[in-house]
Write a structure and sequence with these properties.
The protein is of the alpha+beta class. The chain is 46% helix and 16% strand. 28% of the residues are buried. Bound molecules: 3,4-dihydroxyphenylalanine.
Length: 385
């Protein structure tokens, strides 16, 4: 760069002297003979060549063209006006010949240089746009659906095939829907294992809590719809539990509710058994154990034959030798619940169940720690594409 600008400076200086020369007449310059003329024109030509040599871009090309060919202030215009026109007769034709040669030279070089400059500019643009297809691409790791999501989908698929609909409800609930309407009064001991997180409330605000189960959607659905009802409710639930291998302050459930005029315990058992065989495989056996939930009567705990030892039990660490694995709670809807939603308890019957999705996924895939679901370790997640 430095040398180019120095060269420019020098040529500017020369232009200045040449300009000064062309402003004078031949006579004033002391040119009397054709030999002097030849020297003068060859100096001019060298000057032009020098300037053309340092020219690199469109702008300097235009400047050079104007300096030499400009109609008014151009070098050739000055020569025409000051040398050619007033030339004495004996020099006239020699000036004309030299002048024409110089003009042809200037024209030719300018045209050549213009082509070169344009070609170079095109090359630069091409180089800038050049795509190197041999470069390795950017690797974008493709995610998979989380195992919990996959398990939700599998449970949904099975119940949708039985004619159930999917309903979703709020995770922030009122004590009424989470407890009271499910027949769990304020000081009932059943609340003890459902301690949860309460929203901060200010004077006049109603109490809000994070739902401890998906069961409140039983109430919300029956309030809105007339029987028959067949719904499943996938969602997140919360408990004030300390995290360990089987507990988390947030986990997932799918609630189920079927209410109609003629649903019996047989429908209930058939539905649950169908679900378990679809989910764990056709050879899975099932059993009930009696249990208690305030919103079902009778209430049961559902077990499946251990999928790890095929129900044999002996020596199996997963079922602790029993051959059975506890799955989830269920039961026939307690008539008291119908009272909260203005359903005719005398003419309706139904069943409900609450499936722990994390536990189901852990059992099916032999996962020993519920925390794995929430740590987002890709080495774990990748195992369930
Ligand atoms: N809501 C219960 C829980 O989270 C589970 C449950 C038990 C749901 C029995 C039901 C049911 O619908 O009938 O512990």
């Amino acid at each position: 760069m430095a040398s180019v600008s120095r060269a420019r400076e020098r040529s500017l200086l020369l232009v200045f002297t040449m300009k000064a020369q062309t402003a004078q007449s031949l006579d004033q310059l002391g040119v009397r003979f054709p030999e002097d003329l030849a020297r003068l024109f060859s100096e001019l030509r060298a000057e032009f060549d020098g300037q053309a040599g340092v020219m690199r871009d469109e702008a300097s090309w235009t400047a050079l063209r104007d300096a030499w060919l400009g109609r008014k202030a151009g070098m050739l215009a000055a020569i025409t006006a000051n040398w050619l026109k007033p030339a004495p007769v004996e020099l006239k034709s020699a000036v004309g010949v030299a002048f024409n040669a110089l003009r042809t030279h200037v024209d030719t070089v300018l045209a050549e240089r213009h082509r070169a400059i344009q070609a170079a500019a095109e090359q630069t643009a091409l180089a800038r746009e050049h795509l190197d297809l041999s470069l390795p691409g950017v690797m974008r790791p493709v995610g998979t659906r989380h195992l919990i999501r996959q398990t939700f989908s599998e449970v949904e698929r099975i119940f949708l095939s039985l004619g159930y609909q999917v309903a979703e409800g709020p995770e922030i609930e009122s004590p009424y829907y989470n407890f009271e309407a499910l027949n769990i009064p304020e000081f009932h001991p059943a609340r003890d294992n459902m301690d949860t997180f309460y929203m901060e409330t200010h004077a006049g605000q109603t109490t809000r809590l994070l739902r401890t189960h998906t069961s409140p959607m039983q109430i919300r659905t029956m309030e809105k719809r007339k029987p028959p009802v067949r719904i499943i409710v996938p969602g997140k639930v919360y408990r004030r539990d300390n995290p360990d291998a089987t507990h988390s302050f947030m986990f997932h459930q799918v609630e189920g509710l079927a209410v109609d005029t003629d649903l019996t315990f047989r429908d209930f058992k058939g539905t649950i058994e169908y679900f378990i065989r679809e989910f764990f495989g056709p050879s899975t056996k099932t059993r009930f154990r009696s249990s208690f939930f305030p919103f079902t009567e009778p209430s049961v705990e559902f077990d499946a034959s251990c999928i790890f030892c095929n129900g044999r039990g002996t020596g199996c660490p997963k079922c602790k030798g029993s051959g059975w694995i506890e799955l989830f709670g269920a039961g026939m809807v307690d008539p008291a619940v119908y009272g909260f939603v203005n359903y005719d308890a005398a003419n309706l019957s139904g069943f409900a169940f609450g499936i722990g999705i994390d536990r189901l996924a852990m059992l099916k895939h032999g996962i020993g720690d519920i925390q794995m679901f929430f740590q987002n370790d890709v080495r774990f997640l990748r195992q369930f594409p």
